[in-house]
Amino acid sequence: MASGRVLLLLFADSVSLAAAASAPQITPAVNGPYHVEAQRIVDARGRPYLIRGTEMPTVTLKAEDFFGDGKEFGPFSASSFVTIRQRLNMNAVRIPVSAALYEESADYRARVEQVVRRANRFELLAILASDTENDLRFWTHCSAQFQGNPDLFFAPTGHARQALIDAIRSSGANQPVLVGGPVRDADAIFEVTPRYAVTRTGEDRWRQFGSLAEHPPVLVSDLDPQLDRNSEECTAFPSDPAEATRLVEDYLAYFDAHEISWTLSSFRPGRLLTNYRFYDWSKLDDGWTCGESPSRSGIAMILLSHLWNVEPHGLFSVNPTTGSFVLARGALSTAYGPILADREMHAAGRPLPFRLGNMTVRVTDSRGVARRAGLLFTGAGWSYLTFAIPPNTALGPAEVARAHGRFPLDGPRGRRERRARILDGHRGRSRSGYRASLSAIREWRNEDVSGLEM
Fold it and tell me: pTM for this structure?
């Protein structure tokens, strides 16, 4: 009998499922105003705040970028931001701005403010950047517009660092600022952009940015292998997917160990994802050819797995409507990965069967009570299965196990594949998409699952 398990925690009506040796954590939500204290970014409650984010495309005035075009969601749509927050478990976005458009168009300035406000709404720190260097005029005006936003940082670039900082501060803006080198400012954060071509070993990492972490806070940006370009970075990136994965994972572990913030890669097709419709994440498993554009390969799955503390090739149990790891008790969950059912099967009716395609799922709650989960669908091989979390599952730690063959309630435990934390969907989520997505889950549960006999 082949089996696998998922460890989780239940609070109130919601549940978060993930996979690895220890329980994953939600990255801290945005909570400004921020300031720099010694080597750390500190939030409004005095807690250390590590940035874990990505870069957005440059803001445009195209309506489809903000509202979607009927075929895909736009990069700045609510769906994109909630996907970054809930599915990728990130807490920040870097937002490039066209300095020329900003100066000449009131509509563009309003659009930038809409994008920032939408990012903040979904618990994301907004980091404003310009597409030009040393632009004192832009940063004077931009910082004046956003000087009252506590959940925003500025990222000016260019050799005139001190002049740029002075321009921002002269507008009354006191938010932290990302800079490429030393400046006279108490809330400056060093930003570095390492390259695979020259950063491969621990000594390389220490020389480029590790030693900086002993002074002001450090943020690493980009670090994308640029697989969609015939670039030096793609050429320097290991050609073996396993070796490349280990290299990126080594970087991420290094950042965690040295409390280094990051905004990596870019939230666009060819980098982190393949489209804005289904938000299919890029991965390295199938190999790549430098210059293939848009590339379907990339580091998104490595970042997601790291931030959720899950095994990339293990099971991922998620909310089937949003793709997040937040679920309601009694709701449906879809587990992706090595399902290994005998064949693809759909449940014929209600109540849902406890065995389908020779697969069974068992949920053991914090009181030690084991319940079988009703199965809606099972796929064969590397696929997915959809099951209903028993509505009477007790709050607290719980375990979800799937098995090939019969899985008696008092049977042996399967091989551990996943740990997780279940989130409280009713406390502290009013600023994000969690409440809305949980409401949708509860509605779905009432219509489609409430009549199940568990």
Answer: 0.79
